[in-house]
Amino acid sequence: MLSKRSGFVKALRKEIKSRSIEFSQIEENVNTIYFGGGTPSVLTASHLGSILRDIRKYYPVCDNETNRDNELDSNDEINVGSKPEITLEVNPEDVTPVFMHSVKKAGFNRLSIGIQSFYDAHLKWMNRRHTAAQAIKAFKIARESGFDNISIDLIFGFEGLTTDTWRENIKRAISLAPEHISCYQMTIERKTKLYTQYLKGEYLAINDQFSFCQFSSLQSYLAEAGYFQYEVSSFCKPGLKSRHNSSYWDFTPYFGFGPAAHSFNGRERSWNCKGINSYINGIQNGTRLYKTEAISPKDRFNEFIMVSLRKIEGIDKKRLMAVNNLAELGSDQIEIDISQTEGFGQFITEEFTETLNSFLEQGDLIEESGKIKIPPEKLFLSDGIIRELFI
Fold it and tell me: How far apart are CA 74 and CA 245, in angstroms?
């Protein structure tokens, strides 16, 4: 196991170094770094520190060490002068005082702890290795180690989660006072153990109305506790959104390293091969195994609708209705950020307008201050609303 971990880290560091030239072509600085999408906490603090040092060495990380200002600015964001957000996903069972102190010293300043539930029976059913007591202990160790920006994950909408146990889960989460809480509805994915149980009748999916009630309780309790919902599944204390996740929703270019990692350069997406052995062998042989996909204007429009309506701030109506006039820009304007000039007016068909107006009339969408958004009480229905607006 140790040799495979070392081989993985060696390959990962090699990919990070080799792709730095590619990154330089998009002429962007690195404002957020996220170690996750797998189980990074199974690596040693030394491994994690060496990977982070390589990123700082080969990429233009914005390292303004100005102390974070928790006061809200006009955009509900942390001030631009903040140091980069560097997040590490950790499993509760991997958290120890020595590990936490070491990763804090290495430069990580934000944690995402996969708690999922504060009930052992639920955790066992989810095949999680930690207990509720371990989850609480892990959070406290993180606090004692100096982490002042911690996110935790919770899951709702599954068989066995009663109204009372869900409310207790929320209350326990609030009692820890994390800066950020992500809550996801349980979904049945194909080719999973849960999907097999569902087909055999061993698992019964709960109805949407029951999940809606749990989601509404979540919104109510967290709002009362001072948390701001800024995206369907994301809640934070004032000024402490996940800057990394917010970048995905704003079409900011990003680079992903490691098996199955995705990247986006503003024009196309790419993703590495999934298998860790294939990944390691490919990198060692000087051949990164990956695929690419160009993003068509139609796909970009649909993604714009999806990510905008998942966010509480909603769709910028001016951008939605504007026609793309990039071709008419003068030569001295070519450097303007495309995200500020690209319009989608060419996709606003009569059918799209009728559907949009219908949702507005029904109250499933509202228009405020130039933004079209889903009202908080309808966010649980966001997937259905968004699908109807796709072209």
Answer: 20
Q: What is the side-by-side strand order in the sheet with 371-373?
A: 315-316, 371-373, 366-368
Same domain, 236 and 321: no
Boundary-marking domain end, from 249, 278, 313: 249
- Whole-prediction pTM: 0.89
Is residue 56 domain-shared with residue 186, that is, in the same domain?
yes
Summarised one tens digit per residue, pLDDT across range 159-213 is: 999 999 999 999 999 999 999 999 999 988 888 888 888 888 888 888 899 999 9
CA end-to-end span of the chain: 48
Decide if 270 is inside a domain: no
Could you list the residue range(s) of the whole structural domain that residue 342 is in? 301-389
Query: Is the confidence at residue 80, as pLDDT, over 60?
Result: no
Choosing from 228, 249, 270, the residue where a domain stops is: 249
In this structure, the number of other CB atoms found within 10 A of the CB of residue 320 comes to: 20
Residue 317 lies in a domain: yes
Cα–chain-centroid distance for residue 239?
17
| C-beta separation of 48 from 106 below 8 A | yes
Here the CATH number for the domain that contains residue 90 is: 3.30.750.200
Q: Which two tokens stand for residue 9?
A: 């880290």
- At 28-61, the pLDDT tens digits run 899 999 999 888 999 999 999 999 999 999 999 9
In percent, how much of the chain has pLDDT > 90?
71
- Using only C-alpha atoms, the chain has a radius of gyration, in whole angstroms, of 22
**Are both 242 and 136 inside the same structural domain?**
yes
Read off the tokens for 16: 């990070």
The three-point CA angle 175-245-364 to 5° equals 85
Q: Which residues pair with 33 in a beta bridge?
A: 86
How many domains does the chain divide into? 2
Taking the C-alpha atoms of 50, 15, 93 and 240 in order, what is their torsion angle to the nearest 10 degrees? 80
pLDDT number for residue 339: 44
Give the whole-angstrom CA distance, residue 33 versus residue 59. Answer: 11
